[in-house]
Amino acid sequence: MLLRERAALNFAEREIEEEVVAPLGIRVVGKAEWENRFPYSARGGVVAHEIGYGKTVVSLALIDYMRAWDTKESIAEREAKVDGAWSQELPRPFEHLGNMGSASLAAGTEKANSFFIHLSATLIIVPKHISQQWAAEAEKFLGLTRPKVLVITTLNAFYGTSMEELKKAEIIIVSGGIFTRPFLDRLHGVTRQVTESTPATLPGRAREAWYREALRHHRILTAYYLAGIAAGIPEKDLVAALNERGLPGLIRKQQADIDALLAKQVQEIDRQLYKKGPKSKAAVAGSSRSAENEDATDNEDAAEQETAMKGKGKGKAKVTAKNKGTSKDKEDTDDLSRGKSQWTPTCLHNCSYARIIWDEYTYDGGDLIHLFVSNAVANAKWLLSGTPELFTLQHVCRVAAAFGIHLARPEPRMMPGLPPIMTGPALDPMSKSEEFHVFSSRVKSPSLAMERHEHAHSFVAAFFRGNALDAEIDIPVEEHVIPLDMTTLTAAHYHMVNQELLDAGYDFTILPSHARTIVDLKGTDLLNREGPEVAKMLLGLLGSGLGQVEASMDAMNENLARRVNVLGDQMKLLWDKTMWLWRWILALMAGNREYKATEPVANSLTRVKALCDSLTEAMSDSGNLEEFGGKEMFDHEAAIIAGVRGAQSTDMTIESLREAWGERFKANWADCYNENKALFTWFDFFSIEASNYDHLTDTQTRLLAEDMCWLRYKISPHASPLTDGLPSPDFLGNGNASPNSSITGRGIPPTIEELVERDKRVLDGMSSKELREWVQQCMEQQPKTAQEWDQIKKNFPFKVEDKKPLKAALIERLTELNLKFSSAATVQQLKEILCAHEHGRSVCENYRDGRAPPDRYRDFELTTAWGEPAAKQIDATNEELKRTMVHLAKTIEDLRATMLEAKFAPEYAALARSENKDAFLRKKRCCSCFRPLSHASSSFLVVACGHLLCRECKVISGFYCPVEHCPAFVRKRPVLQCSQIPTSVAEPLPKAESIAYFIKNNIPADEYVLVFAQYRQLISALAKAFDQYQLSYVNLAGTKDNMVAKKLEEFKVGKAGQILLLDMDSETSAGSNLTNATHIIFASPYVHPDPEHQTRTVSQARGRCIRTGQERKVNVYHFMMRGTVEEETLRKYAEKCKPVKEWFDKDGGGLPWWMT
Ligand SMILES: [Zn+2]
Ligand SMILES: [Zn+2]
């Protein structure tokens, strides 16, 4: 480090560009090389080590050693080189200062000679939660306290620390928490107004350009200031003059320069790239008064950005006027700095430093810090990090940029087929010229990419150096793997959900809702993870005992049976609806001889016919049952469709079914559905209103009344017949509201016809007038008409908690509900989607799994209202028919899966509960070959269907379960070896409690523990379990940001409990030294799609207490649910961790089924 501090490291930069000249068929490569050297700072380097290297201490030692140099040579060098390089920037002689300028000129200061307040201090930027830690270590090792050490944690202190204090300080610690949006907003006052909102919204490069302009003004003003003070001008007057005249002058000058520059080029650019329509042209041509601030700010790169800026700002006054008219971002109306100058003499922007140390540069939220560090002036820069990110060109480029080194022009997009190491930074959004570039050059040759990569390598070689201190970290560590078993119930659910996930291709979003919601996942959990990652999260949490499973095996079986019933009813509903819609189309067509069926309509009709024909055929003696999922499934489905209840009962033979059902599926199956009044008839098809009610004939009124009776029985489980004469107006009551409550447990009585017959007799007894009144009363309960619906949508209330932005909250909610939406949708559109769902108006297409709640209204009345032309009605009806068929198919799939699960669960439970599995199995036979089973290790249970297989039959099974007629798909699906099913005589504790129990019983109360957990649910379960076991702990994951530092400090000194609970996915503990703890618990193996990230995060976590300064042995515990996705993850980790691998080799047991 010392060496690098004194001699600048020159770095040859290379710019490489490639273009294919298509007409000539040649590839042109352009190359430019130049030296990059101090003062644009290529001094310093990266100090990075996996863990515990003691970077803080080494850095402090460096500061200590360099103390004398920092106060003399360092400053002298900066004065000579930096100020020298900057002096040409200075407008002279102080032209923007008017009299004041002349005054200082008169005083003999012809030219300002310094642009910075050159400090001898080291500036250290740290994550906000360890700013106190740095201060404490500076005191501990160097004995430095205030005023030698300054800790700056607010933006006001950043701007307002006095010159005297700055000069006294040896170390200035700046909290990374300062570098947020207000940091940029504050600079808004010293530069042109480039956007109507804030520079935070500028795309990356334009923002950097803008930032540099702001710094430039800062530094020129500092030069004026220093010269003015030297000339003896009173400070107050001087600052006032700088703000009143100096700064506005600079801004005007800058604007004028840009205008002049663009005046030459803009027409060309405008024609080629900037075709934004006449408005922007007008702006460019000078009549900017009419120019609108069109949203061109999104996509330009720096140069073009300026074009856009120019259109917007001809001098400040106009800009302000325009701001008024185009407040696209309403939230940004705060006039913080607009039109007001904000320059103050003491501000860290105005200073230069002996060195800048950026600790934990990989810590998140570093974008603005990066901007600050790369543009700040210092003799040397150091980047510190445990567990550095350095795996792609992207990371290297980022690090290089902090040293002011432009490493390679990163590719916005690489063509496929190149080596993966070439990952370029995602420049989002792509600039116009990049888009053009990508568009125009089709070839990106690997050689070019490799050349760039080599350049990055040379940077790494120069700036990163292997350190010799590796061996110093010799802290004894003992690793333990602690396997846990799931409870029988959890395990049964786990296997079933896993099966469903496999069927869904590991896509969480297309899981049926019962599987999706078995663990309470919120939108926030889902949004920042990909489908497969969510699937792993779901399985991990379910396995850890955090699923909402039933209290007992019996309850689970009951639940499954109920789900079979519910799905059966749903299927019946959909089937009837399909038939009714089909008939309705035919009826409409019959009434319109001229109508020619369109293709979709014809298709639907054919499909319905084909389905019914094959059912008819299946009913015949030789019928093929395969497409109905085998005999068993067919029996069930057929029984449901036939309206015969008790379909699960085994006494119903295919013969009896054929008898009961044959009626309907003979030659004219179509007619058999005649009497099945439509479920949705009344709601959807007859938009009868008060205005046309009088037109109804008596017969029509009577038919409507009958329909309503039908509807009621189908929708409501509790509907009772009309025995008491005139029904009350709330007759439909639970029939048309709260669909969820009505579908569960509803059984369609086989006597529904009888019930309606009874009702009909009541209706017979009513006078025509009574009947009319009654129908009218019911009519008033009809769902809202279209007009009212618009009102509902408009006024749909949606409450947001936690002050979250409305759109984000809506997106989270829609994600939870599995609703589809476009990311470009407006808040109003998102609201409407949610509103439609809540009012039961969403159709299958609106859901990501294609499953709408089945028994809700359909948003379809308008086009089918009577009075519309037949063709329109037919098309609308057909749309509904198609949806219904899709929904029906999905329902049948769900039903099938659930029926099979209902077989697996009890079989699994019986096995898990038998203490002697061999004995238990010897009483059983292989379901396929019927030979008796012998040992648990040679017997298998198929999760998909609950069939037991011997080894031979398991081996020969291909895609399907080998048992005859079994429709279960088994290829790459779980088939459990019976000996691997844990015996659970006493049910194990869920994971969180197991961990709490473990700590309570195995770790002395005076030893400190770090518990790392992933996922919100597990963290809160752990917190709860710690409470339950009366363990004292700090939940850092549940601690507000501004309290993190305090809590950490409390924990370190033993004032905050024995346990520190941390979230693996958040880096809130990065950099903190927690060597007081000697136990590390990983509540679950850490899951992340990027293996590098995964490894790094785990080392980062371990490094909190396995690091320099640790004097005792550290115990690391890996908790894992055996036989789940966690085992898979931990086995992968074992490849990098020898003791864990040894554990698996010795005690780990066989590989789980899917890893063999
Ligand atoms: Zn067998
Ligand atoms: Zn089977």
From TrEMBL:
Coiled coil: none
Positions with biased composition (Basic and acidic residues): 326-338
Residue segments, region Disordered: 277-340
Keyword Hydrolase: yes
UniProt biased composition (Acidic residues): 293-304
Domain RING-type: 926-965
Keywords: ATP-binding, Hydrolase, Metal-binding, Nucleotide-binding, Zinc, Zinc-finger
Keyword Transmembrane helix attached: no
Residue stretches making up the Helicase C-terminal domain: 991-1156
InterPro entries attached to this UniProt entry: Helicase_C-like, P-loop_NTPase, SNF2/RAD54-like_C, SNF2_N, SNF2_RAD54_helicase_TF, Znf_RING
Biased composition range(s): Basic residues: 311-321
Any single Pfam family the record assigns to this protein: SNF2-rel_dom
Protein name, per record: RING-type domain-containing protein
Provenance organism: Humicola insolens (Soft-rot fungus)
